[in-house]
Amino acid sequence: MHDAEEPLDRLALKRRPGSAWAAALVLALSLAVLQASAQVNVVVTTPDLKSITEAVSGGAARVQSLIPPGADPEAFEPRPAHLVALREAGLVVRIGAGYEHWLDRLIQQAAKPHLRPGAEGYLDASAGIALLEHRGRSVTITPGHAHGSANPHYWLDPVNGLAVAQRIAETLARLAPAQRAGIEAAHARFAAELQRRTAEWQKTLEPYKGAPLVTYHNTWPYFARRFRLNIVEVIEQKDGVPPSVARLAGVAKTMREREVRAVLHEPFQPIDASRALGERTGARVVVLAPSVGSLPETSDYLKLFDSNVRQLAKALAPAQ
């Protein structure tokens, strides 16, 4: 017979010891699963950052890009829905280098201390990148254009993409420590594949080392440096302002003198000037994607370079 003064909960455990321990074990496992499956809400500014973040997260992040694929990022203006998304974010990742001048006000309006510069939920992907000031040009940041004193298109060098991927993976692992192993494994796979593809892209463009190019917009200095190409002119004399007739005549003269065979153009830029120069000089106008999703075949960061390298190599190849 049981002691009458023995607590009822102890008596219950003595009667059914297995069921209590089983319930406790199920509860502990459920909490562990919930913790391991919890995703970090990540808001990034561009589709390029979205692609890289998804690739290295190992499923640990839900990622939203403020700028949609195919949009002109330098004409982007945030809407109220973007502020709502930011307020729900555990991490915000930006290109930096003056590219998203509108983001600072958005972060201020969100009033979330963890998203402010220097806080744990803020990542400027340009930190540690060797930024270029193409031809030393300094451009005032104004609405409708997003270049600062340095050229911000550094993601168009895949080696810079490796550095960005590493910083994002490290940040996610810190914010989601229970999923560190998955994040590290996903990052390792992505980095290995990007390095392998970079070697292939360099091999594809190696025959055109030093080839002179003209670009419509000042987007391609990092791409040109990585693949050893030579940008001899940028058609826009002032960023965001269409070239004058005199300007086009001067660029055409340079193109003939330097035997330029390709004009690089972006899908959302006005194409009349590039076409006119192609007709005057015989150069091919090559529409390249400056960002993931700018063209249908550039749905992720690796495909962005697959497409651009293939198109440029085709344009530079000697006529058959």
If you had to describe this structure to a student in words, what would you say it looks like?
By secondary structure, the protein is an alpha/beta fold. The protein has 2 domains: 37-199, Nitrogenase molybdenum iron protein domain (Rossmann fold, 3-Layer(aba) Sandwich), CATH 3.40.50; 204-316, Rossmann fold. 46% of the residues lie in helices and 11% in strands. The protein contains 11 helices and 8 strands. The strands form 2 sheets. The chain has a 4-stranded parallel beta sheet, covered by helices on one side. Strand 3, helix 5 (103-110) and strand 4 form a beta-alpha-beta unit. The radius of gyration is 26 Å and the shape is globular. It starts with 7 loop residues before the first helix and ends with a helix.
Secondary-structure element series: HHEHEHEHEHHEHEHEHEH
Number of domains as seen in the coordinates = 2
Amount of helix: 40-55%
Task: Tell me about the largest β-sheet.
Answer: 4 strands, parallel
Q: Based on CA inertia axes, which overall geometry fits?
A: globular
Q: Structural class from helices and strands?
A: alpha/beta
**Helical region count?**
11
Please tell me the CATH architecture of the largest domain by its name: 3-Layer(aba) Sandwich
| Total beta strands | 8
Mean pLDDT: 87
Strand content: 5-15%
Q: What's the CATH class label of the largest domain?
A: Alpha Beta
Order of adjacent strands in the largest pleated sheet: 2-1-3-4
Radius of gyration: 26 Å
CATH superfamily of the largest domain: Nitrogenase molybdenum iron protein domain
Q: What is the end-to-end distance? A: 102 Å
Poorly predicted segments = 1-17, 26-36, 134-146
